[in-house]
């Protein structure tokens, strides 16, 4: 879906609502892209710290052993299913944007509802995983790194859900149209970024 249109939604002030100026991209979208760039650096530093701890701390095992000394395995299969939920949420959001581009506001609302449902399901499954992992962030260096990475990502998913909920509220008010959808596009950028980060996290932490 096109990121912005050349004209704002009727009744909205372009500068106040982030519609694209005639000479370039919307300030709101540029701000979101800059914010995402800072988040890329944050997660890059977290991934770097994770690998340093994983391969640089002597006499550490990963995953940590259970209290009885038996090896512990991360729930890879369940997390894979959870990953698919999050990936599907990107497609449902994209579908909703496509419906808006076709002038179907109800389709956008349905797409946002399904996206929010999938994102919330992802968070609930992650919380359930925390409850059954068998170790805490204080147990080992590796467990601390694991909780930091997954916990920070979970916080980003929560923020994304809040942003999408705000977009859903505006969709019910019919604030978005084929000519004006900048806040929705900005939220979409953020949600897709969060999904991409999780796919990388799943591969690097749960699979490798």
Topology, please?
Elements lengths: L13 H4 L9 H30 L19 H26 L3 H28 L8 H32 L9 H26 L1
**Which class do the helix and strand fractions yield?**
mainly alpha
The number of domains is 1
Report the CATH architecture. Up-down Bundle
CATH topology: Four Helix Bundle (Hemerythrin (Met), subunit A)
Distance between the termini: 35 Å
Radius of gyration: 20 Å
Low-confidence stretches: 1-24
Task: Explain what this protein looks like in three dimensions.
Helix content is 70%, strand content 0%. It is elongated and about 60 Å long. It is built from 6 helices and no strands. With 208 residues, it is an all-alpha fold. It has a single domain, classed as Cytochrome c oxidase, subunit III, four-helix bundle (Four Helix Bundle (Hemerythrin (Met), subunit A), Up-down Bundle), CATH 1.20.120.80. It starts with 13 loop residues before the first helix and ends with a helix.
Task: Supply database-style keywords.
208 residues, Four Helix Bundle (Hemerythrin (Met), subunit A), mainly alpha
What's the quick description here?
With 208 residues, the protein is mainly α.
